[in-house]
Input
Amino acid sequence: MIVQGYRIENKLKKTIEDLERDYNIEISKIQQILLSIHGPITTVLDVLYGDVNLFILNQQFKNADKDMADLIDVNKHDEVFHREVIVHKHGKPLVYASSLIPKSRCPPEIFDEIHRKQLTTGKIAYKFNFETFRKITKISIEKSTPLFEELFKTDEDLLTREYVMIHDGKIFIHTKEAYPLSYFRE
Output
């Protein structure tokens, strides 16, 4: 029988505990899983709700501004593909996601799939056996915006997480996910 061991440090759990304390709220276990999972959020949503769907709100090339360049470690004005999607079940929005993909770091076959298919970026990378490492860079609570109020039909604050997918030591994709605080509380 094991009677002694070492405590495993979990910085993401600490960040979530800090949010709970700072905002005087309780973040549900499901929300904690969605915020801290290093894999695709759609995997958890599929388990919770059955198959979920992806709806592309907007996707276009942009020249990176300073904020974008900082997030994905490219030069200002480099070409970036910006994609905004909603993961939904039967038309009910579950999660909003916005991704930035530096064109110079995306193999053409993967980029073609991202541009044409209604699949998540993670599922496309998996389909091509494109090996990546996900690193969560930020977990926060943010005020709603007109876009979120329109999508989710509420003005409540949002739980957000940001992460990067890294390939060969370089950021391949930056993603920000958001959903209202009242979601995933069951």
